[in-house]
Amino acid sequence: MAMASVAALRLVVLLAAAVPLLPPPAASLAVTSTYVRPTARATLSVLHDGDGRTPQQVHISAVGSDKMRVTWITDDDAPATVEYGTVSGEYPFSAAGNTTTYSYVLYHSGNIHDVVIGPLKPSTTYFYRCSNDTSRELSFRTPPASLPFKFVVVGDLGQTGWTASTLRHVAADVYDMLLLPGDLSYADFYQPRWDTFGRLVEPLASARPWMVTEGNHEVERIPVIHPRPFTAYDARWRMPHDAGASPSGSNLYYSFDVAGGAVHVVMLGSYAGYAAGSAQHRWLRRDLAGVDRAKTAFVVALVHAPWYNSNRAHRGEGDAMRAAMEELLYGARVDAVFAGHVHAYERFARVYGGGEDACGPVHVTVGDGGNREGLATRYVDPQPAASAFREASFGHGRLEVVNATHALWTWRRNDDDEAVVADEVWITSLASNPACNKKYSISLY
């Protein structure tokens, strides 16, 4: 991989019938947590312990309702093949894919293999191996085809000791899919960090689908020297932008359905064009217009730079995108919007147009996965009325869509090496709210 050259660069009880009968939660008072984080932890560097043909950095992502994309890297030439089956050691199915590489200044990547396998059965464990390698058997579990459905949501991961703590907490949880609203490796131009990040997350990312969107740390554009942005991100983390009923044509934004169409997830690109008339704006309008809320219980969106933020860090950086796109999300009755970028946690009430609105989405910032830049500890005072809970800590969130009317959002703080529930709220589907479930239309033009 030409390392000499690169060195030069430097309660949830699932009673579906009972949950709708729960009384609505009492209005919560705004809370700014006074919790003080323990000291910082060092950046990690996970080395490769195999030979040049040994698969490494394996991760998977969902493609449609019954397929999975398997991506991995080998230092040397190896076949882009995946063998798989439902019994350990037995691989009656196989598929072949593509191999690509990329260069970034003096860095040259390993061989990046990409194979789509399927059709797969829902809620089933599959055993697989990559590049005909007999030394490593991996496994993943496919998501369920109906509710309940459990997401983990975490942003701005990086690869520090706090990242490792977050990943341990996620691994101890029971979930179906991980959503990441940008800032993955914090490579920041030094490409070997993409490799160490891939090795760090492999135990989780090879076992459950990871669906990601880009953050500012994925741009990696150097004027004149390397003017093309997102080179490593696009090569290493290909998402299903060309699949489903609403292909976007760009790896920087896309959408997909889970749980048999009960949940629609929209992954937006903060660093792709988003103004009215842009390709992303036109695609989002078409995508949301195609969602039938009589069949789709929940719609959630992810974006990197938050549209609502009372932290002093990155104030206003999401405002232009909010001005361009918020009306579309509001018209489609999007239930929740998750963001990263700000290295802290914050949950807002339902908001729209800069203020509280009972038919707007719940906005949550979860840019607190464990990055090396540290936490954003300074908030605006006094706390805005729409800001329900905020805390400058590392952690991760969990969204459990229990049934067609209710989802439970929980945020778990990294309290040293223990995941502590610090914030929790029930989210009721706007499609089930008579006051919000009015006829609306989103023009395709």
Using brief descriptors, characterize the structure shown:
alpha+beta, metal ion binding, Immunoglobulin-like, Purple Acid Phosphatase, chain A, domain 2, 2 domains, six-stranded mixed sheet, 25 strands, 445 residues, disordered N terminus, nine-stranded mixed sheet, MPP_PAP
Explain this structure.
The longest helix is centred in the middle third of the chain and has 14 residues, at 192-205. This protein has helices at 3-7, 161-171, 192-205, 231-236, 279-289, 319-331; strands at residues 31-32, 56-63, 67-74, 81-85, 93-96, 98-100, 103-104, 107-108, 111-117, 125-130, 138-141, 149-153, 177-180, 210-212, 254-258, 263-267, 298-303, 336-339, 345-352, 355-356, 362-366, 387-391, 395-401, 406-415, 418-428. It has six helices and 25 strands. With 445 residues, the chain is α+β, with helices and mostly antiparallel strands. Strand 7 (103-104) and strand 8 (107-108) form a beta hairpin. Helices cover 13% and strands 29% of the residues. The protein folds into two domains: 45-141, Immunoglobulin-like; 144-434, Purple Acid Phosphatase, chain A, domain 2, CATH 3.60.21. The strands form five sheets. Strands 1, 15, 16, 17, 18, 19, 20, 21 and 22 form a nine-stranded mixed β-sheet that branches. A six-stranded mixed β-sheet has the order 14-13-12-23-24-25. Helix 5 (279-289) packs parallel to helix 6 (319-331). InterPro entries: Calcineurin-like_PHP, Metallo-depent_PP-like, MPP_PAP, PAPs-like, PAPs_C, PAPs_N, Purple_acid_Pase-like_N. It catalyses: a phosphate monoester + H2O = an alcohol + phosphate. Its EC number is 3.1.3.2. One of its GO terms (molecular function) is metal ion binding. Residues 55-142 form the Purple acid phosphatase N-terminal domain.
